[in-house]
Amino acid sequence: MTRKIFQILLLSLLAAACTEKINVKLDTTYTRVVVDGNVQSDTGVYAVSLTKSSDYFSNEPAPRIVNATVTVADGVNTYTLHESLPGISGIYQTDRGFAGKIGNTYTLHVALHDPVAGVTSVEASSAIPSVPHIDSVSAEFDATAGTEGRWIIKVWAQDPANETNYYLFNLYRNRQLITDTITKKVISDDKFYNGSYMNGVPVMRLNNAHTWSTIHPGDTITLQMSGITKEYYNFIMEVDRSGFNIPFFTGPPANIKSNVSNGGVGFFAAYSNSFATSIVK
């Protein structure tokens, strides 16, 4: 009987320990402007999303910054972006015929209708580097990787013989972008093939177990290879290491370097593109 009483008391103490409330005081930071946008060398409509940062554990969408005046300038021309849903969306778009020019530097200027933590405007600049022409792309299945294998995306292109170049790779399956978050995109420099021909260089690996992000025989794939700046390359690498996605629904870690002025976070990028398409066998 004594043993049973002891066991009951012990279980009661353990249960109390498991249900004890622990109050953790978490620091907050001041609200900042978050920029997520780009312009590219192909003719199209490009967008810049403006939000306010929120606390790390906030479960609410980041507040949109609306009614701002947003422009992009290349040193000669200034282009005005228009809010897709005026006063609601916080997403500002270029006109349909916009196309960036390789070699130009594009400066984003945002004048806020309502100040954010005393900030009334932010700026960010990015040049458009060149990108090699892709001769071809292929998808090869590797049955030895994992339990269900993987697809390896390979590229053929001539890398230029100059300073280090930085590339961003996106993949479309049947015209649908499958690298649709920043952590799914692939970045690379040309350290190991600078000035050489990229003769079937592997640039992407797809886990065949993930049906939402793999490919299948008969699919049409399109590889997008983009020339990006070193700064944007470093930004994507830091975001990937931190585990954050874009757009930011919470304030990103302070150690991720941004090109946005006045304490803003996020990144405004400009890059060139080359495409190649093939059918998966």
Strand and helix order: HEEEEEEEEEEEEEEHE
- How many E-type strands? 15
Euclidean distance between termini CA atoms: 73 Å
Proportion of beta-strand residues: 35-45%
Residues in helix, %: 10-25%
Tally the helices: what do you get?
A: 2
Mean pLDDT: 88
**Rg, Å, rounded:** 24 Å
Structural class per helix/strand content?
mainly beta
Walk me through the structure:
With 281 residues, this protein is mainly β. The protein has two helices and 15 strands. The strands form two sheets. Strands 1, 2, 3, 4, 5, 6, 7, 10, 11, 12, 14 and 15 form a twelve-stranded mixed β-sheet that branches. A three-stranded antiparallel β-sheet has the order 8-9-13, with no helix packed on it.
Quick rundown:
The chain is mainly beta and 281 residues long. It has helices at 2-18, 230-242, and strands at 33-40, 47-52, 69-73, 78-83, 91-93, 105-116, 119-127, 134-142, 150-158, 166-173, 176-177, 186-189, 197-207, 220-228, 265-279. Strands 1, 2, 3, 4, 5, 6, 7, 10, 11, 12, 14 and 15 form a 12-stranded mixed sheet that branches. A 3-stranded antiparallel sheet has the order 8-9-13, with no helix packed on it.
From the structure above, extract its key features.
281 residues, mainly beta, three-stranded antiparallel beta sheet, 2 helices, 15 strands, globular
Note the topology.
Elements lengths: L1 H17 L14 E8 L6 E6 L16 E5 L4 E6 L7 E3 L11 E12 L2 E9 L6 E9 L7 E9 L7 E8 L2 E2 L8 E4 L7 E11 L12 E9 L1 H13 L22 E15 L2
Parallel strand pairs: 1-15
Antiparallel strand pairs: 1-2, 2-5, 3-4, 3-6, 4-5, 6-7, 8-9, 9-13, 10-11, 10-12, 10-14, 14-15
